[in-house]
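Sanity check record (used in CI):
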Amino acid sequence: MEFDSIECVSYSDGGDGLEEDDIPQLHHHPHVIRSHFSSSKTTTTHNNKNNNNNGSSIICDGNNNNGGIGIHPASSVHELLECPVCTNSMYPPIHQCHNGHTICSTCKARVHNRCPTCRQELGDIRCLALEKVAESLELPCKYGSLGCPEIFPYYSKLKHEAACNFRPYNCPYAGSECAVIGDIPYLVTHLRDDHKVDMHSGCTFNHRYVKSNPREVENATWMLTVFNCFGQYFCLHFEAFQLGMAPVYMAFLRFMGDETDAQNYTYSLEVGGNGRKLIWEGTPRSIRDSHRKVRDSHDGLVIQRNMALFFSGGDRKELKLRVTGRIWKEQQNPDEGACIPNLCS
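Expected output for RING-type E3 ubiquitin transferase:
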């Protein structure tokens, strides 16, 4: 949805199926992810006692009868546990072809039950030896380069990484399907340079939104503004969307950080006109919660169209909304043991 005009003033208080020809021929291939960070890969080597403790890797016996193990020097067990198609770590059931090449259960369906390395039929053979080896591994969190110091058993690592406090954040821009991830400083630069988002310093704001034809309501974001306040970053969203059969306008704030830190802040939004006003006060949601999740929960200032047109005045044919707000932080009073509001100076 396009704007006819916008005024922004900030005041400071002081996977589809693969065709056969597309099946990868190499056991490992590049995997491109748009992100700011690059997790360091830690190599864990399984030593074979009969091979003078030289680094070796395990390949399951293709016939799956005698439990034989093939030794291939210069490869690590950690690399063997990477699926050759998606390059993600493999978890039971780990499948293999008759030649011992492995693949994860998800990609087995994607390659139409054909081995991506040798093109042989995969069948239903489990690589039980590799699954057992994985149970003995302890690996660092893949977000170690971002500060996570934890080490986990192989099969617990994935669950931890899904909720790791050091994992990167998704881009909070909601106007497009943006796949960029990274830490907060990187995302702030990305929003400014790539999405051309307005950046403001201060804990109070005053926005005026104008739309010549308010009956044209689409499921699209109108505007995103980023505020630097208390040394943190906040995303102010304002948009129009359809709620059932009725179009509504909504403003809400998201905190660029984790949920626990977001709980330290409070914000208020106010819109009004013609002697009436609506006020919303609440805690900003973390950008860990998607834009759509926050919007669909109505966790913000929601304005019905009739009320928005009433606030706009005039002939009620043009939308003119002024939304003001402020952000503050609750601080503990050491003398009285009570929380007092701390306004940004």
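The CA atoms of residues 18 and 111 lie 6 Å apart. If this sentence no longer matches the regenerated tokens, the check is flagged for review.
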